[in-house]
Amino acid sequence: MIKDSTRLKEEILRLKNEKNAIILSHNYQREEIQDIADFIGDSLELSRTAATKDCDVIVFCGVHFMAESASILSPEKTVLLPEIDATCPMADMIEVRSSRKVWKTFPGYDVQPTFIFPHEFTLKDIKAQYPDAPVVSYVNTTADVKAESYICCTSANVVKVIESLQSDTVICVPDRNLSQWAQKHSNKKIITWDGFCHVHDRITIQDVSKARKLYPNALLMAHPECRIEVLEAADHVTSTSGMLRFAKASSAKEFIVGTETGLIYRLKKENPEKIFYPLRKDMVCPNMKKTTLKSVLNSLQKMEHLIKVTENIRVPAKKALDRMLEIK
Ligand code: 13P
Ligand code: SF4
Q: Would 168 be classed as within a structural domain?
């Protein structure tokens, strides 16, 4: 077994050098993938790295929208996604032309009550309803949605991005939880979709109480894809790499981790003297776990699966990503 994975790693390394490739890994990837990666990070860091690294091939160990972003930013590079079925269900919830989810504004934000657009309304329809409101799309979206957006954001910079805009009304899609979190930190009116991440949205306030009782000395870190009541009960709300920075800088010794459990491997590795507990053990993203050493090797051997965005979508999508990357 050990011998097997050692051989796989050696072959991956050999092919990587031969093809002038780099391996990027999201913080949620399997331990063995994080170990062979040239760079591990959150969505924002991975976007920046994909845009600046000097290489011919990027093997993206993450989910589809991440590889797509890399291809949008670096069309001259060959971007490979080892597992073609590694998608993000939240990113696939929203479509430009045939939305399956409802739109709503937040109750009590202004004089109007919450109003919900019927599911046949599309991103184009809602843009027509709010013609002056720029669309901020979370990077967890398809290239099509990015192409219809003014600017992108990640969990690390959503508030900064929204605050950078002139308009008082902003459309923020597709995550209702991220948008609600941003709304708490902005005076702008934020209109959102009813999208969510099934891994983070399953966490309830009861889960928080249970974890607090079990680990009374631990600080709770939560990802902004969690529900707003969970975020309000957390000690720190941030992206995956934000959690790495927070845990390192904090004098606390114990932490409850309110995000996908894959992050705990890196948290432990970088802070061996500290203890990390998952907020719930089943915070596992099955799609993030699809990539294995075998699939990375296969990807480099067969140069698959190629992720390429057509120019008519790539150019406007790149504008939205570039606008985000310009914000420091
Ligand atoms: P981060 O940008 O915080 O790494 O999050 C990406 C993601 O998919 C969270 O579920
Ligand atoms: Fe998508 Fe959630 Fe998985 Fe992140 S954890 S990739 S948002 S399904």
A: yes
Count of domains observed in the chain: 3
For the whole model, what pTM was predicted? 0.92
Asked if residues 88 and 290 have their Cβ atoms less than 8 Å apart, the reply is: no
How would you class 76 by CB atoms within 10 Å of its CB: exposed for 0-12, middle for 13-18, buried for 19 or more?
exposed
CATH of the domain at 252: 3.40.50.10800
User: Alpha-carbon distance 168 to 116, whole Å?
Assistant: 20
300 has a pLDDT exceeding 90: yes
- Position with higher pLDDT, 73 vs 192: 73
Rounded CA-CA distance 304/296 in Å is 9
Q: Is 157 in the pocket of ligand 1 (CB under 6 A)?
A: no
Is residue 326 assigned to a domain? no
Dump pLDDT digits (tens) for 18-47: 999 999 999 999 999 999 999 999 988 988
The interaxial angle of helices 43-52 and 64-73, nearest 10 deg, is 30
Centroid of ligand 1 to alpha carbon of 1 (angstroms): 31
**Alpha-carbon separation of residue 116 from 50, 106, 109, 113 (angstroms):** 38, 10, 14, 10
Distance separating alpha carbons of residues 217 and 205, to the nearest angstrom? 18
Task: For residues 190 and 115, state if they share a domain.
Answer: yes
* One-letter identity of residue 33: I
The best mutation among 40, 181, 223, 241 to test binding of ligand 1, ranked by most ligand atoms within 8 Å of the C-beta, falls on: 223
* Helices of type H across 215-328: 228-232, 240-249, 263-270, 293-302, 311-326
The H-or-E segment that residue 117 falls in is strand 116-117
Binding site membership of 240 for ligand 1 (Cβ less than 6 Å): yes
Do 259 and 236 touch, CB atoms closer than 8 A? no
207 lines ligand 1 (CB under 6 A): no
- Residues with Cβ within 8 Å of 254's Cβ and at least 6 positions away in sequence, in order, are 215, 217, 218, 219, 274, 275, 276, 277
